[in-house]
Write a structure and sequence with these properties.
Blueprint (H helix, E strand, L loop, with lengths): L1 E5 L4 H12 L3 E6 L19 E4 L5 H8 L4 E4 L10 H21 L6 E7 L8 E3 L3 E3 L6 H5 L15 E2 L1 E2 L9 H19 L4 E6 L1 E3 L12 H10 L5 E2 L6 E2 L1 E3 H13 L7 E4 L5 E2 H12 L6 E2 L2 E3 L7 E2 L2 H4 L9 H13 L8 H10 L3 E3 L3
Parallel strand pairs: 1-2, 1-4, 2-3, 4-5, 5-10, 9-19, 10-15, 11-14, 12-17
Antiparallel strand pairs: 6-7, 6-8, 13-16, 18-20
């Protein structure tokens, strides 16, 4: 098959490209190569067999050209950041997805499958259980609560302690612009796909980790932040108290999930979580990075928090497991692989201070008590 991968020069996209080529498919990549993720040049890790097209998914002419002769699309291009340019999230993530379906439908293109990258972020805080009041989906924490260092979420009914649960695909309550745009994107894909008989699947990735994850982008996650700090001889910096629960998944497991839903018609018109079926605190992740570096020391608890962050989020992967998929890479192995890759990069640098400055200027990163 001829497969288009939008955002194919990026982290998840490039690994998906490798797997498609290994499966005997012809691959075309459409990518805007924009900073901070990229430098404007095609990365050297893209194989020569890939057809490269420089352009944005928001550009009608560029996207139409990229769709010529295509049998399937992995729509992985996205805008990710902590900035407050709200309209850009919806332009790149939502409107460009609508444009993709508009072109396929209006030009009667013979696209037989579309796989769209969504995000665990659509859940907001996700599911919790109160011993008194049962399962609930609490809203986001207030500035007043975070400023007072009250990190945990109390039961909104009785004020008691909540237990975080694995969240399945039945409920979504996004509370930042990225998450809102991703929820829109997956609804556009699945609903328009069903309406116009274009088999489509949305995958809600947990926090994906692995080689090629940009160390220039503040949104790339805690592993990137911790690795560049440790490689620069500085301690990892924890936001809040570091006890947030997260669900980190290896890029290799994500690519296997991508290929599964691409090939299996049982996935058509479905939305699936792609996680690792484990709970890892941010502090534990920082300690794994220190261990991978063979470095003594302690993570630094900064007293900072990011407005809009969830306290705990873990994905229930039962639906995808029912199709025969399961995560195979341990958390320790994922950390070690990324750290070894980052240490070998000639242009690695500590982007932490730069990222903090951008988030502070946008009012996203704040200090408790401010």
């Amino acid at each position: 098959m001829q497969v288009l991968v939008t955002g194919g020069a990026g982290f998840i996209g490039s690994h998906t490209v490798d797997a498609l080529l290994a499966g005997g498919h012809q691959v075309r990549v459409l990518d805007s190569l924009e900073p901070p993720v990229h430098t404007g040049a095609w990365p050297a890790y893209l194989p020569e067999a890939v057809e490269l097209q420089h352009g944005s998914v928001t550009d009608r002419a560029a996207l139409r050209t990229a769709l010529d002769g295509v049998d399937a699309v992995f729509h992985l291009a996205a805008y990710q950041d902590y900035l407050t340019d709200f309209s850009r999230f919806f332009l790149v993530n939502s409107a460009a997805t609508a444009l993709l379906y508009e072109l396929i439908v209006n030009d009667r293109l013979p696209v037989r499958k579309v796989v769209v990258a969504s995000s665990q972020a659509v859940y907001g805080e996700g599911a919790y259980r109160c011993p008194n009041d049962g399962v609930m989906y609490p809203g986001q924490r207030s500035v007043e609560q975070l400023s007072a260092r009250h990190w945990e979420i109390p039961c909104p009914r009785c004020g008691g302690t909540l237990e975080p649960l694995a969240t399945d695909e039945t409920a979504a309550a996004p509370h930042n612009s990225y998450a809102l745009s991703k929820r829109d994107q997956e609804e556009i894909a699945v609903k328009l796909g069903r309406r116009y008989d274009i088999p489509s699947v949305a995958l809600r990735y947990s926090i994906v980790q692995g080689p090629r994850q940009s160390f220039r982008n503040a949104y790339s996650g805690a592993l990137r932040s911790f690795a560049v700090r440790v490689l620069s001889g500085r301690p990892p910096v924890l936001y809040e108290d570091g006890r947030q629960l997260r669900d980190y998944v290896s890029i290799h497991d994500v690519v296997r999930a991508n290929l599964l839903v691409f090939q299996d018609p049982r996935a058509d018109y479905g939305v699936f979580n792609v996680g690792a079926d484990r709970r890892v605190t941010v502090e534990d992740l920082a300690r794994m990075v220190l261990a991978a570096a063979g470095t003594a020391g302690e993570p630094e608890v900064s007293g900072l928090y990011r407005l809009g962050d969830t306290r705990h989020i873990i994905s229930d992967i039962t639906r995808l497991q029912a199709l025969g998929w399961a995560p195979a890479i341990s958390q320790e192995a994922a950390v070690q692989e990324y750290f070894a890759w980052a240490a070998a990069q000639p242009d690695i640098y500590d982007s932490f201070a730069e990222a903090q400055a951008r988030m502070r200027a946008a009012g996203v990163l704040r200090e408790a008590g401010e």
